[in-house]
Write the structure tokens for this entry.
Amino acid sequence: MGDLTKEFHRIFGDSREEAVAFFVPGRINIIGEHIDYNGGYVLPCTIKMGTSALIRKRGDSTARFASTNMSNLVEIPLGHVAYEAGHGWANYPKGIVRHMQLDGHTIPGFDILFSGDIPNGSGLSSSASIEVVTAKALNTVFSLGYEMIDLVQLAQKSENVFCGVNCGIMDQFAVGMGREDAAIYLHCDTLDFKYIPLNLGEYTFVVMNTHKRRELADSKYNERRGDCERALALLSKATPIKQLTGLAPDAFEEIAHTLPEETLRRRARHVVYENHRVKQAVQALEAGDMHALGQLLTQSHISLRDDYEVTGFELDTLVDAALQNPACIGARMTGAGFGGCAIALVEKGKVDAFKQTVAEAYEKVIGYAPGMY
Ligand code: GLA
């Protein structure tokens, strides 16, 4: 019996019904940041870290949620599933239950135990991972008949409506639809997508955690979304577009002057050029041109730092330290920003030395060590 099963029996007791196991990973985004809610292209891929869940039917109408990472056990009657601040993390799986009910499903009683190794608040989609693993578990155990793409959309809706976090579709899509050794080239408006094999040649991705919590991330995130909406409203007077990502860089430059505020011009510029960089990154990956890919990553970071302003001192320090190492050919923040993680494209044989020097340089400036995965 595995450790998680033992823990399950310790917390929930024994039963004749068997517990069933599920796993959903976390993600990094290779490029295409703050693009999903602007309807353009993103290029995420899954990581080894993720969330496991063990679920068992109860035969009544109570749901109990526990996690090896948290101390509280949450018990709710399935006839009344509502957001409660005191339930903390358990609101993510509760939201999934609620949205399945709103789809017309009756969800019978169950016990579920989660165990995850994605650091919380690190920008590696721990919330999307727990949402989608819950959705997958309930869908399978209660034969609800959803396809994975439906579960992905349900999970995003639940995070938006039940949890009140205004995220786009990228994270839930990446963790639900991801495959090993491939990135997902996703168009966030149409949801058309293609798997791009991750043949990185002599290179590999190192994930670096600033260990800075993403304070104010939600309010700043919503502010950026608002800036994009205002920029779109103004630019669409000059040219018929439905999204900022509907503009190619040349077309944008021609009408950028119609944006009265400098800030809005910079926000829109990031979106237009970042969307274009995603297409270039896919070409670079397909051509096996790692140096071109690395340069695009670094350009993305600079744009997120100077035009979109979502990096911050810790992320900039970490990315600069990575770029100063000769084994690194490109680096950028990944996820929402304001803290969390960055990725670096690093020569495979030199990863250990890279991690050590970058960690030392970061700690010297920031005062504490970064995480390296
Ligand atoms: C967070 C959100 C995503 C996406 C990224 C930024 O991870 O959950 O929907 O907007 O930020 O690219």
The first helix runs from residue 3 to 12. The longest strand covers residues 44-57. DSSP finds eleven helices and twelve strands in the chain. The chain has a mean pLDDT of 97.
